[in-house]
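Memo to structure team: turn this sequence into structure tokens by end of day. - J.P.
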Amino acid sequence: MASIKDVAEMAGVSLSTASIVVNGKAEERKISEKTQRRVLQTMQELNYIPNVSAKTLRKGESQSYIVALFWHFDFRAMIMHRFLSGMQQRIAETGANISVIVHPYRTGSLQKNHANFQGGEFHAAIIANAGADDLAYLQRENFPIPIILYNRQLDGYCSVNVDDRKMGFMAADHLYRQGYRRPCVIHGLQSFPGATRRNEGFVERMQEYGTDIAEREIIRTDSSLCGGFECGTSLLKQMKYVPEEQMPDSFFCSSDFIAMGLVNAWAGTDLVPEKIGVIAVGNNDPQYSMYHAPSLTVINMPIEEMGAECCQLLIDRMYLLRPEPVQKFFETRLFARKSTARTGGTDTESRENK
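Reply from structure team:
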């Protein structure tokens, strides 16, 4: 395994200069950008992993790789436990000596953590919830540590993904086979690439079925139970004044929490599923949608499996020294339940009548 001395010699700099760059103090010590890039490039070529654990070694503790999980603490914070559960399972299975630290950040501001990515605090990072500005930052920089992207794709980086457009196709196919013909989309206020692609896929497939979804039929609300409930309450008021044949007969929700709030607003009515079908992306703990009343049809995000695979890609790079970027894709499953179980419907894919 390469040492800091090897990096210094190959980059043509002094050992102290290489050490300053590795420890993320180059700006503070006024090391030129050209020198920084040369050292960082050399670290990549040699697959040099900074010894972040030196402090623990001095205390007589065993060496441990430290992995930082960058996560935006908006509504997606509620699903982080599923991701961490997958990581924990994979660490236990492999016996890897890895510690995980959660590093909160705001989507679009990843660059503010630049010094952290120079190898001074952790050996590797997993970045979730990255926005366009974050991806642009990652694309133009070279880092001395392995970085894995969660459900984002970028040349030169390992990533773990689902086919978001396909999820939109699946939702449209299911609603159509169940006999729903006037679909509407309920989208979270927070926009991100995956949700956009799901909506695009849904609208595209519905167009193939002969149904155009106008902009006014894409409703935006907070990605929460409250947001879904408020949306459902508003729609219920509209139903008093608008003929039934002019109201949507189905809703594709960007999160299962929105869908549960929506259906809760209609408790005590006979709307779901005969008059209105509800399907959602299953982000949260599957038991919430499975044991809701009525049970909710979802396209489940395999978040635990994706978390485990992100962890595996890091293990491969830290222990097995595999430098090549890899993009992994996971299949999503549709669980058809009572919220779309319209009489006469034909779709039985992955049916769970909870």
